[in-house]
Design a protein that fits this description.
The protein is α/β, with parallel strands linked by helices. The protein has a single domain (10-23, 30-249), classed as 3-Layer(aba) Sandwich (Rossmann fold), CATH 3.40.50. Helix content is 28%, strand content 25%. The protein contains eight helices and eleven strands. It has helices at 33-40, 59-67, 80-92, 110-116, 144-150, 157-168, 184-191, 243-249, and strands at 11-14, 19-22, 49-53, 72-77, 99-103, 123-128, 169-180, 195-204, 213-220, 227-228, 232-233. Strands 3, 4, 5, 6, 7, 8, 9, 10 and 11 form a nine-stranded mixed beta sheet that branches. The model has no long low-confidence stretch (mean pLDDT 90).
Length: 255
């Protein structure tokens, strides 16, 4: 018989109740506004195979699966406990028939990735929130799972991560990622030669502040020009979410 310590964390409403998620307790890595913005930027279409790469407990990919019933979704996560919660979340939201969880290291060599089920040219839309830091560039969290989610263990991690994105996507497939604003040059360097039609949306806390995040979209193999999109502003003068961002948190307009 399982002990109370073995029981999964309680289910919580997410995206205004569009989903219920079981997530680690606060202090560990949990889905927040970054995941909301990424899910809201997905643009999934009927019949597509969608991959949430570095899925954690599955928030982004499950949101897309719920909003677009004719998609097939892969949740890729290397942490066994997070992957197990992603499986449970898919089941409890009635999405198991269209959602597959793959436990794999995104930055592993090609043969290892493919043996885990990450096959080349197999994805139409890839959504990802990569770890934010290269080793030695930040103070790692004392919580091991949070530290692993926020930082790469080896130099060149972002390059390897985005190389895997290109490998998984079909020619013409679409990538959407969210990252720190100051990491934009590194993101663009890693995407060069693999993606075109790059669109960058700065994400600002308020209209009069510098961006803290960027949403970056691109198309594998495209030669379309770069586009800098209008900024997405999170908070109004009163400190509350803007109407647009509040609607995103309720899951409105998600596709």
């Amino acid at each position: 018989m399982s002990s109370a310590a073995d029981a999964p964390p309680p289910a919580e409403a997410w995206l205004g109740g569009c989903l219920t998620l079981r997530q680690p307790p606060r202090g560990a890595h949990r889905a927040g506004t970054d995941a909301v913005l990424l899910a809201a930027s997905a643009g999934a279409q009927a019949g597509e195979t969608v991959c949430d790469l570095g899925a954690g407990t599955g928030a982004v990919g499950l949101a897309v699966a719920r909003a677009c019933p004719e998609t097939r979704v892969m949740l890729v996560e290397r942490d066994p406990e997070a992957a197990a919660l992603a499986c449970l979340n898919a089941e409890e939201n009635g999405l198991s028939a269209r959602v597959r969880v793959i436990e794999a290291d995104v930055t592993a060599q090609g043969r290892e990735r493919r043996s885990a089920g990450l096959l080349p040219d197999s994805v139409d839309l890839l959504l990802t929130n990569p770890p934010f830091f290269e080793p030695g560039r930040h103070r790692a969290s004392p919580v091991a799972a949070r530290a692993a989610a926020h930082g790469f263990s080896e130099p060149g991690g972002l390059e390897a991560w985005l190389r895997t994105c290109a490998d998984l996507l079909r020619p013409g497939g679409r990538l959407v990622l969210i990252h720190r604003a100051d990491a934009l040059p590194a993101c663009l360097d890693a995407l060069a030669g693999r993606f075109g039609g790059i669109q960058v949306t700065p994400v600002q806390p308020r209209a009069d502040t510098a961006a803290i995040r960027v949403l970056v979209a691109g198309v594998r193999g495209s030669r379309a020009p770069f586009v800098l999109m209008p900024a997405l502003v999170l908070h109004g003068p009163d400190g509350r979410f803007t109407d647009r961002v509040e609607a995103m948190h309720r899951g409105e307009g998600l596709s």
